[in-house]
Amino acid sequence: MGQQEITMADVGNVYNPTTQPDQGSKKWFAIPSEHLDIIRFGIKFAEVVLSFLAFVLEEVVAGCTSCTPLYFFEFVSCTAFLFTTLLLVLLSTVLYKKVGINRWPTVDFVYTGVILFFFGIAAIVFACVNGGTSVEKAAVAFGFLATIAFAVDLGYFGMTKGLPFVKKSSQPTGDLEQPEAEKLRANGAE
User: Fold this and answer.
1) Taken in order 64, 65, 70, 71, is the CA torsion positive or negative?
2) Spacing of C-alpha 168 from chain mean position
3) Cβ-contact 61, 70 below 8 angstroms
4) How far are the Cα atoms of 25, 69, 172 from residue 169, in angstroms, in the given order?
5) pLDDT band for position 26 (50/70/90)?
6) Distance of CA 39 to CAs 63, 83, 105, 113, 188, Å?
7) Strand, coil or helix: 64
8) What residues are paired with 18 via a beta bridge?
9) What residue intervals traverse the membrane (predicted)?
10) Number of folded domains that form the chain
11) Residue 6 lies in a domain
12) Residue 133: inside a domain
């Protein structure tokens, strides 16, 4: 009776290294990720904080002489705060995979450019037309700081990843295509 008994523990030891789930894939917060590195995460976090402070300070304003610039600044700062927070959460977690958008760099670039444009206009208009109170001046200051943060984000994105609209050619053109065309002409298959 020289047979060895194989127990279930022995079978488990054989299969454990290959059947265990990868513990690294269970992280829900992933910085750096495929769409957001640590520097851009910090810039986007600064955009969220500065937009929020601009919005809160604008909300504290008691009265307005010309309310249209105040309301426009309120709309832009609130929109920037909410949507940048959403974008930051999506790009810094694995949730971006569940949304169904395949062109995240394009979405991020266009969104940042649009908010930069509108935040800049809102801050300039509100700086020109306000009651001159210290709260309004502080709101304008945080509006300009948020605008600068969006500009830095857009510039850094362009420097590190390039423009998302420009297709990168994986095949060199010119020199390789000409010999192929000559071969086709020589064979009469053009």
Assistant:
1) positive
2) 20
3) yes
4) 31, 46, 7
5) low
6) 39, 19, 15, 18, 57
7) coil
8) none
9) 79-97, 109-132, 138-159
10) 1
11) no
12) yes
What is the pTM assigned to this prediction? 0.73
Which residue range is the domain that position 71 belongs to?
50-162
Q: Give the closest residue to 135 by CA, choosing from 46, 72, 80, 70.
A: 70
In a domain, 30, yes or no: no
Question: What whole-number percentage of the chain has pLDDT above 90?
Answer: 52
Looking at this protein, which amino acid is placed at residue 88? L
As given in the structure block, the two tokens for residue 76 are 């832009």
71: exposed, middle or buried (C-beta count within 10 Å: 0-12, 13-18, 19+)? middle
Residue 115 has pLDDT above 80, yes or no: yes
Of the candidates 44, 62, 42, 51, the residue with the CA atom closest to the CA atom of residue 141: 51
- Cα–Cα distance, 86 to 99 (Å, whole number): 12
Contact status, residue 83 vs residue 52, Cβ threshold 8 Å? no
Which backbone phi and psi does 29 adopt, to 5 degrees?
A: -105, 115
35-76 per-position pLDDT tens digit? 889 999 999 999 999 999 999 999 999 888 889 999 999 999
Q: What is the pLDDT of residue 2?
A: 53
- Other CB atoms within a 10 A radius of the CB of residue 103 amount to 11
